[in-house]
Write a structure and sequence with these properties.
- By secondary structure, the protein is an alpha/beta fold.
- The chain has 4 domains: 70 residues, no CATH class; 60 residues, no CATH class; 37 residues, no CATH class; 172 residues, Rossmann fold.
- Helix content is 42%, strand content 15%.
- The strands form 4 sheets. Strands 10-9-8-11-12-13 form a 6-stranded mixed β-sheet. It has a 3-stranded antiparallel β-sheet with strand order 4-6-5. It has a two-stranded antiparallel ribbon with strand order 1-2.
- The N and C termini lie far apart (53 Å).
Length: 374
């Protein structure tokens, strides 16, 4: 087992984490960062040290150690792959979770999860604590609770009243000037009072979702945000991107989330694959920006910025986008880790054209987005 270059080491760690996730072990992006930090502290030529460091840093539960050993042999030792043992993990570690309709809402449920009596949600977490819990550490039951919380938040925060007063036919402030003008038409009789009020102004919003493999741990909750915004905002356009850009607004039907998720899975190619953010933004600018551009338009990009494409192309696309819209917001799940620095080529190219850069790793971060939209 050799150390290899930093790039090879990072790629092998990402492959290892993906293999664990594919077999039901919850390994998030924060765990991968911990794994990379642990590898920097050990002797990479010492198999036992690497094995022990990764098992600790990735927080592998004891009942998944046999699976960990089998995948470690295949990926780190280069041994011929053998069938890993079948896991019987506790509820928080069994996976992958699936979207299911329970008659009232779409919730994340494990493949063999039994419903709790009287519709209660197993493993319920206190809401104030759950708001701060990273998505990649949440159980299926907690994710279902977060989805309900998002549904309640969006209508309250995604719209506001304007400062200007406009004529209205119902309740509002009395407009004496218009009332007197109306009276002149009826020979001075004040037949009715004219009124004004501040109308509710909803934002014009464009949301671009990164659905590449590195975003797997966050994609489900971010899509739930999209469902909530579609319920609350009339002018919202949704796009999914990885190696290609796919408009998905018409696929999202808030009242039929189960069918929506099935349509998304079938319609977005290369789901959980690589990422070419620059090329996807260039496609958005070329084919969609003219229809959506404007000073009141806010573009939200939900991505970890781990781009496999040309960073220069990403910078050009971001500059062209920023010149045509009112505001660009970039939310990055990795930014929830205090150790994170946006030092990849893609993030460095994009940040000069971003009005607000923040995290997207928990519900509290998404609440901040809704306030920015407001």
């Amino acid at each position: 087992m050799d150390g290899g270059s930093d790039r090879d080491l990072a790629a092998r760690l990402a492959q290892f984490a993906a293999a664990l996730r594919a077999r039901g072990v919850r390994v998030g992006l924060g765990d991968e960062l911990d794994g990379a930090a642990a590898l920097a502290l050990v002797d990479l030529l010492d198999r036992a040290e690497v094995h022990r460091a990764l098992r600790i840093a990735l927080k592998i539960p004891r009942d998944a150690w046999a699976l960990f050993d089998a995948l470690f042999e295949a990926i780190w030792d280069g041994a011929p792959p053998r069938d890993p043992p079948r896991l019987d993990l506790p509820r928080d570690h069994r996976g992958p979770a699936q979207w299911r309709w329970d008659g009232e809402r779409v919730r994340l449920a494990l493949a063999d999860e039994d419903e709790a009596p009287d519709g209660a949600t197993p493993g319920y977490s206190d809401e104030p604590m759950l708001r701060r819990k990273p998505f990649d550490r949440c159980s299926a039951a907690e994710i279902a609770t977060l989805e309900r919380m998002l549904r309640r938040l969006a209508p309250r925060l995604a719209a506001r009243r304007t400062r200007r007063l406009v004529p209205v036919r119902t309740r509002g402030h009395v407009d004496l000037r218009r009332s007197l003008r109306h009276a002149l038409r009826s020979e001075g009789d004040l037949v009715r009072l004219a009124r004004r009020d501040r109308p509710i102004e909803t934002p014009s919003l464009v949301v671009l979702y990164d659905t590449s493999g590195s975003m797997d741990a966050h994609t489900r909750l971010l899509l739930a945000l999209g469902f909530a915004l579609r319920r609350a905002i009339r002018k919202v356009e949704l796009f999914a991107f990885n190696t290609a850009l796919v408009p998905v607004t018409r696929l999202v039907e808030p009242a039929e989330e189960d069918r929506t998720l099935a349509r998304l899975a079938a319609s977005v190619p290369d789901w959980s694959g690589g990422t070419r953010i620059g090329a996807c933004l260039e496609a958005f600018n070329a084919h969609h920006l003219d229809r959506m551009a404007g000073r009141r338009t806010t573009v939200v990009i939900l991505s970890d910025g781990l781009d496999h494409g040309d960073a220069a192309a990403l910078g050009r696309a971001m500059r062209a986008l920023r010149e045509r819209v009112g505001r660009v917001i970039w939310l990055n799940p990795l930014a929830g880790d205090p150790r994170y620095r946006p030092e990849t080529d893609g993030m460095r190219a994009a940040l000069p054209y971003v009005d607000h850069f923040g995290p997207a790793h928990n519900l509290e971060a998404l609440e901040a987005l809704l306030r920015l939209v407001r």
